[in-house]
Protein backbone atom coordinates (compact mmCIF):
# COMPACT_ATOMS: atom_id res chain seq x y z
CA UNK A 1 0.00 0.00 0.00
CA UNK A 2 1.25 3.48 -0.87
CA UNK A 3 1.47 5.93 2.05
CA UNK A 4 2.68 9.54 2.18
CA UNK A 5 5.15 10.64 4.86
CA UNK A 6 6.75 14.00 5.66
CA UNK A 7 10.54 13.60 5.59
CA UNK A 8 12.81 15.68 7.85
CA UNK A 9 16.61 15.53 7.64
CA UNK A 10 18.99 16.13 10.54
CA UNK A 11 21.28 18.45 8.54
CA UNK A 12 18.98 20.09 6.00
CA UNK A 13 16.65 23.02 6.57
CA UNK A 14 14.41 21.92 3.72
CA UNK A 15 11.59 19.54 4.58
CA UNK A 16 10.02 17.12 2.14
CA UNK A 17 6.26 16.86 2.38
CA UNK A 18 3.93 14.04 1.30
CA UNK A 19 6.64 11.74 -0.01
CA UNK A 20 5.26 8.46 -1.33
CA UNK A 21 6.51 5.15 0.08
CA UNK A 22 5.40 1.55 -0.35
CA UNK A 23 4.54 0.46 3.20
CA UNK A 24 5.09 -3.24 2.44
CA UNK A 25 8.46 -2.76 0.70
CA UNK A 26 11.70 -3.32 2.66
CA UNK A 27 13.29 -0.30 4.34
CA UNK A 28 16.18 -0.56 1.89
CA UNK A 29 13.79 0.68 -0.82
CA UNK A 30 12.69 3.61 1.37
CA UNK A 31 16.33 4.51 2.00
CA UNK A 32 17.01 4.56 -1.73
CA UNK A 33 14.16 7.04 -2.17
CA UNK A 34 15.51 9.18 0.68
CA UNK A 35 18.97 9.10 -0.90
CA UNK A 36 17.54 10.54 -4.12
CA UNK A 37 15.81 13.28 -2.13
CA UNK A 38 18.53 14.28 0.31
CA UNK A 39 21.84 12.95 -0.99
CA UNK A 40 22.48 10.90 2.17
CA UNK A 41 23.54 7.41 1.13
CA UNK A 42 21.49 4.48 2.51
CA UNK A 43 24.33 3.12 4.66
CA UNK A 44 24.56 6.48 6.45
CA UNK A 45 20.85 6.77 7.27
CA UNK A 46 19.28 6.14 10.68
CA UNK A 47 15.49 6.39 10.47
CA UNK A 48 12.89 7.28 13.08
CA UNK A 49 9.15 7.23 12.59
CA UNK A 50 7.35 9.98 14.52
CA UNK A 51 4.02 8.44 15.47
CA UNK A 52 2.52 11.39 17.38
CA UNK A 53 4.03 14.23 19.39
CA UNK A 54 7.07 12.84 21.22
CA UNK A 55 6.08 9.25 20.50
CA UNK A 56 8.64 7.86 18.07
CA UNK A 57 10.12 4.53 17.06
CA UNK A 58 13.58 3.72 15.73
CA UNK A 59 13.43 1.76 12.48
CA UNK A 60 15.66 -1.28 12.40
CA UNK A 61 16.63 -3.88 9.82
CA UNK A 62 16.65 -2.95 6.15
CA UNK A 63 14.61 -6.08 5.51
CA UNK A 64 11.74 -4.85 7.70
CA UNK A 65 8.87 -2.78 6.29
CA UNK A 66 7.35 0.56 7.24
CA UNK A 67 4.10 -1.26 7.98
CA UNK A 68 5.91 -3.29 10.66
CA UNK A 69 6.21 -0.07 12.69
CA UNK A 70 2.64 1.13 12.15
CA UNK A 71 3.51 3.76 9.55
CA UNK A 72 0.49 5.65 8.23
CA UNK A 73 0.01 8.55 5.86
CA UNK A 74 0.65 11.94 7.47
CA UNK A 75 3.36 10.74 9.87
CA UNK A 76 6.88 12.15 9.89
CA UNK A 77 9.99 10.18 8.96
CA UNK A 78 13.13 11.61 10.55
CA UNK A 79 16.43 10.91 8.77
CA UNK A 80 19.65 11.20 10.77
CA UNK A 81 22.75 11.58 8.60
CA UNK A 82 25.54 9.53 10.24
CA UNK A 83 28.22 10.43 7.69
CA UNK A 84 30.86 12.65 9.40
CA UNK A 85 31.90 13.94 5.96
CA UNK A 86 28.37 14.67 4.73
CA UNK A 87 28.08 17.55 2.26
CA UNK A 88 25.04 18.70 4.24
CA UNK A 89 27.17 19.53 7.29
CA UNK A 90 27.87 23.18 8.14
CA UNK A 91 26.78 25.10 5.01
CA UNK A 92 26.55 22.27 2.50
CA UNK A 93 23.22 22.03 0.72
CA UNK A 94 21.65 24.72 2.92
CA UNK A 95 23.78 27.48 1.37
CA UNK A 96 23.12 27.76 -2.35
CA UNK A 97 25.98 30.23 -2.70
CA UNK A 98 28.42 27.33 -2.22
CA UNK A 99 27.05 25.53 -5.27
CA UNK A 100 28.79 26.35 -8.54
CA UNK A 101 26.27 27.64 -11.04
CA UNK A 102 26.38 27.65 -14.80
CA UNK A 103 26.21 31.15 -16.25
CA UNK A 104 25.38 31.48 -19.93
CA UNK A 105 27.02 34.37 -21.74
CA UNK A 106 24.81 36.90 -23.47
CA UNK A 107 26.34 36.03 -26.85
CA UNK A 108 25.50 32.33 -26.46
CA UNK A 109 21.96 33.08 -25.31
CA UNK A 110 21.48 35.47 -28.22
CA UNK A 111 22.16 32.66 -30.71
CA UNK A 112 19.68 30.19 -29.19
CA UNK A 113 16.32 29.57 -30.81
CA UNK A 114 13.11 29.01 -28.88
CA UNK A 115 13.98 31.58 -26.21
CA UNK A 116 11.90 34.61 -25.26
CA UNK A 117 14.52 36.86 -26.83
CA UNK A 118 14.39 34.90 -30.09
CA UNK A 119 10.58 35.01 -30.12
CA UNK A 120 10.46 38.78 -29.58
CA UNK A 121 13.18 39.38 -32.16
CA UNK A 122 11.26 37.40 -34.78
CA UNK A 123 8.00 39.12 -33.84
CA UNK A 124 9.67 42.51 -34.17
CA UNK A 125 10.98 41.51 -37.59
CA UNK A 126 7.75 40.04 -38.98
CA UNK A 127 4.93 41.94 -37.26
CA UNK A 128 4.74 45.62 -38.39
CA UNK A 129 2.14 46.59 -35.76
CA UNK A 130 4.19 45.09 -32.94
CA UNK A 131 7.31 46.83 -34.30
CA UNK A 132 5.44 50.16 -34.37
CA UNK A 133 4.28 49.71 -30.76
CA UNK A 134 7.78 48.81 -29.57
CA UNK A 135 9.39 51.79 -31.31
CA UNK A 136 6.72 54.14 -29.98
CA UNK A 137 7.22 52.86 -26.42
CA UNK A 138 10.99 53.29 -26.76
CA UNK A 139 10.63 56.88 -27.97
CA UNK A 140 8.22 57.69 -25.15
CA UNK A 141 10.56 56.19 -22.56
CA UNK A 142 13.51 58.14 -23.99
CA UNK A 143 11.51 61.36 -23.77
CA UNK A 144 10.61 60.61 -20.15
CA UNK A 145 14.27 59.99 -19.28
CA UNK A 146 15.35 63.23 -20.99
CA UNK A 147 12.68 65.11 -19.04
CA UNK A 148 13.90 63.61 -15.76
CA UNK A 149 17.50 64.47 -16.68
CA UNK A 150 16.52 68.07 -17.35
CA UNK A 151 14.80 68.29 -13.97
CA UNK A 152 17.72 66.67 -12.15
CA UNK A 153 20.19 69.30 -13.42
CA UNK A 154 18.18 71.93 -11.55
CA UNK A 155 18.37 70.11 -8.21
CA UNK A 156 21.29 70.47 -5.79
CA UNK A 157 22.37 68.21 -2.95
CA UNK A 158 21.13 69.60 0.35
CA UNK A 159 18.03 71.20 -1.15
CA UNK A 160 14.80 71.03 0.78
CA UNK A 161 11.83 69.52 -1.01
CA UNK A 162 8.29 68.30 -0.69
CA UNK A 163 7.05 65.10 -2.25
CA UNK A 164 4.41 65.31 -4.96
CA UNK A 165 2.76 62.26 -3.42
CA UNK A 166 0.01 61.71 -0.85
CA UNK A 167 1.07 62.51 2.69
CA UNK A 168 2.39 66.11 2.47
CA UNK A 169 5.87 64.80 3.24
CA UNK A 170 9.07 66.83 3.19
CA UNK A 171 12.75 66.12 3.32
CA UNK A 172 16.29 66.92 2.23
CA UNK A 173 17.88 65.71 -0.99
CA UNK A 174 21.09 63.79 -0.24
CA UNK A 175 21.65 62.02 -3.57
CA UNK A 176 21.18 62.92 -7.22
CA UNK A 177 22.39 60.39 -9.75
CA UNK A 178 21.98 56.93 -11.22
CA UNK A 179 20.69 53.86 -9.36
CA UNK A 180 21.04 50.95 -11.84
CA UNK A 181 18.77 48.65 -9.84
CA UNK A 182 15.93 51.16 -10.32
CA UNK A 183 16.33 51.41 -14.08
CA UNK A 184 17.73 54.07 -16.42
CA UNK A 185 17.42 57.76 -15.69
CA UNK A 186 18.25 59.96 -12.70
CA UNK A 187 17.11 59.16 -9.17
CA UNK A 188 16.94 61.37 -6.10
CA UNK A 189 17.77 60.06 -2.66
CA UNK A 190 15.76 61.87 -0.01
CA UNK A 191 16.08 61.91 3.75
CA UNK A 192 12.54 62.43 5.00
CA UNK A 193 11.66 64.44 8.08
CA UNK A 194 9.55 61.56 9.39
CA UNK A 195 10.09 57.76 9.22
CA UNK A 196 7.65 57.22 6.34
CA UNK A 197 10.19 55.96 3.80
CA UNK A 198 11.31 52.48 2.86
CA UNK A 199 15.12 52.55 2.96
CA UNK A 200 18.18 53.70 4.86
CA UNK A 201 19.81 55.02 1.70
CA UNK A 202 20.81 51.73 0.10
CA UNK A 203 19.29 49.80 -2.79
CA UNK A 204 20.30 46.57 -4.49
CA UNK A 205 23.09 46.07 -1.97
CA UNK A 206 24.71 49.45 -2.73
CA UNK A 207 24.61 52.50 -0.45
CA UNK A 208 23.90 55.82 -2.15
CA UNK A 209 23.32 58.02 0.90
CA UNK A 210 22.94 57.56 4.63
CA UNK A 211 19.68 57.87 6.54
CA UNK A 212 18.11 56.22 9.54
CA UNK A 213 15.93 53.20 8.88
CA UNK A 214 12.70 54.16 7.07
CA UNK A 215 13.79 57.79 6.80
CA UNK A 216 15.11 57.33 3.25
CA UNK A 217 13.29 57.26 -0.07
CA UNK A 218 14.28 57.04 -3.74
CA UNK A 219 12.17 59.01 -6.23
CA UNK A 220 12.31 60.38 -9.75
CA UNK A 221 12.93 64.15 -9.97
CA UNK A 222 9.42 64.67 -11.36
CA UNK A 223 7.97 63.40 -8.07
CA UNK A 224 9.43 66.21 -5.93
CA UNK A 225 9.27 69.99 -5.74
CA UNK A 226 12.35 71.84 -4.53
CA UNK A 227 11.94 75.02 -2.51
CA UNK A 228 11.66 76.57 0.93
CA UNK A 229 9.94 73.72 2.73
CA UNK A 230 10.84 73.74 6.46
CA UNK A 231 10.09 70.81 8.72
CA UNK A 232 6.46 70.57 9.78
CA UNK A 233 4.82 69.88 13.10
CA UNK A 234 3.32 66.40 13.38
CA UNK A 235 -0.16 67.93 13.34
CA UNK A 236 0.48 69.23 9.81
CA UNK A 237 1.10 65.76 8.37
CA UNK A 238 -1.62 63.83 6.56
CA UNK A 239 -2.52 60.30 7.60
CA UNK A 240 -1.98 58.90 4.10
CA UNK A 241 1.74 58.10 3.87
CA UNK A 242 1.53 55.64 1.01
CA UNK A 243 4.38 55.60 -1.50
CA UNK A 244 3.63 55.45 -5.21
CA UNK A 245 5.80 53.79 -7.82
CA UNK A 246 8.81 55.58 -9.18
Automatic annotation (TrEMBL):
The keyword Lipoprotein does not apply. One of its GO terms (molecular function) is microtubule plus-end binding. Signal peptide: none annotated. GO terms for biological process: cytoplasmic microtubule organization. SMART domains: CAP_GLY (SM01052). Keywords: Chaperone, Cytoplasm. InterPro entries: CAP-Gly_dom_sf, CAP-Gly_domain, Ubiquitin-like_dom, Ubiquitin-like_domsf. The keyword tRNA-binding does not apply. SUPFAM superfamilies: Cap-Gly domain, Ubiquitin-like. It is found in: Cytoplasm. GO terms for cellular component: cytoplasm; microtubule plus-end; nucleus. Residues 178-220 form the CAP-Gly domain. Gene3D superfamilies: CAP Gly-rich-like domain (2.30.30.190), Phosphatidylinositol 3-kinase Catalytic Subunit, Chain A, domain 1 (3.10.20.90). PANTHER family: DYNACTIN 1-RELATED MICROTUBULE-BINDING (PTHR18916), TUBULIN-FOLDING COFACTOR B (PTHR18916:SF85). Belongs to the TBCB family. This is Tubulin specific chaperone B. It comes from Giardia muris.
Amino acid sequence: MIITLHVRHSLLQQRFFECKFESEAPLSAAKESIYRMTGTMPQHQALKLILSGSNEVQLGSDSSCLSDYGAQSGMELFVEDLNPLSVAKDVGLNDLSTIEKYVMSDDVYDKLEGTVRHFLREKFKNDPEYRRQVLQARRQRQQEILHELDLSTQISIGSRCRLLLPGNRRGTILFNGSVPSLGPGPILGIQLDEPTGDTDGSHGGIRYFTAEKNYGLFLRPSKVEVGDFPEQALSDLDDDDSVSDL
